[in-house]
Design goal:
Length: about 325
């Protein structure tokens, strides 16, 4: 029955290949954020997609343990730090693709073509608009000013999002100046670092602190729950080094059983149509420059991103972790 159905579908779709294959995806993104894309791809091409979701670390361990016997064709995960680490552990293959190079800006993909950003999230400053004058906000660096003493909330330094943020600060300023900045942040904390971006936003809403740093899509989720929220995002200007962005992304695995098809699927994920859907599923920004974000995301205003290559977030990750420890950022 399944086979009959596939043949019938193939006849209906002139672009579908003659032989349908089943791709296997390992995804650290949760099912609700990827399944609609898989469904659309299956409908359009006749290929089917099997997938396993788990934490980034678990999937990486599994890929390494399976080695050349792994059924996985593609690894999907979040944060350039995780993508870089997976590439560095040797589980991703180089992919030469003009389509990927055209659709994805260079700073959002691996210079060695082992991983590619597919959606962008901004990790930016969030503030209580009833208590903070927007003109007093300038940059990540200036959150270390004594003006913010007892008014700052941060997520735990153990989260990869903060490893990447601090790594990009090291990339910009060097370790010594970055350590001073982080010490300034720690001195300004209203409370011990929190377990999640959601907890940081709740603390600001509850008056425990006035400013914090969060990924933009968490603010989108808050706005959907509470359209009248008095929290707002602030975008550091380009003369103050711009906004730290990060990606969700993917790479073809080193021992992909269906390498060519996996590359086609990755290219499809970077296409205008897939980008439109992908960015909307988690209120993110498309990587494809020709695709607009959703109305809600656009309502947060335009910003200039720090366009240093995100592979630096991976390369400098271990220095960032040690630096945060030295600076007393728990
Ligand atoms: Fe997240």
């Amino acid at each position: 029955m399944g086979r009959l159905f596939l043949c019938w579908l193939t006849l209906l779709l002139p672009l579908a290949p003659l032989s349908a294959e089943t791709l296997t995806v390992y995804s650290a993104r949760s099912e609700e954020l990827i399944k609609p894309l898989f469904d659309l791809y299956e409908k359009q091409t006749g290929h089917s997609i099997q997938y396993t979701t788990d934490k980034a670390k678990g999937l990486l361990r599994r890929l390494k343990a399976e080695g050349r016997h792994s059924p996985a064709d593609l690894l999907i995960t979040v944060d350039a730090g995780n993508l870089w680490f997976a590439a560095n552990q040797g589980v991703l293959a180089e992919v030469e693709s003009e389509i990927l190079q055209r659709n994805i800006p260079a700073y959002l993909r691996d210079p060695e073509n082992r991983w590619f950003g597919l959606s962008v999230r901004a990790r930016t400053i969030i503030y209580n608009s009833h208590k903070v004058d927007q003109d007093d906000l300038i940059s990540y660096e200036r959150l270390a000013d004594s003006q913010w003493q007892g008014r700052l909330c941060l997520r735990t330094s153990k989260k990869v999002y903060n490893h990447s943020l601090v790594a990009m600060l090291i990339n910009r300023h060097g370790a010594r100046k970055t350590e001073d900045i982080i010490r300034g942040w720690v001195a300004n904390l209203a409370r011990q670092p929190m377990s999640s971006d959601v907890a940081v936003m709740a603390a600001i809403e509850n008056g425990i602190c006035d400013i914090g740093i969060v990924n933009s899509y968490y603010f989108g989720r808050l706005q959907k729950q509470n359209p009248g929220t008095h929290l707002a995002l602030f975008w550091p200007a380009i003369e103050h080094n711009g906004v730290h962005v990060n990606v969700s992304g993917a790479g073809v695995t080193r021992y992909a059983p269906h390498r060519e098809q996996a590359i086609r699927f990755l290219e499809w994920l970077s296409s205008e149509q897939a980008q439109h859907l992908l960015a909307r599923l988690n209120m993110e920004y498309p990587v494809h420059p020709q695709v607009a974000p959703s109305d809600l995301v656009r309502s947060w205003g335009a910003f200039d991103a720090d366009t240093s290559n995100l592979s630096q977030a991976g390369k400098l990750q271990k220095y960032a972790v040690r630096l945060m420890q030295r600076a007393g950022y728990r």
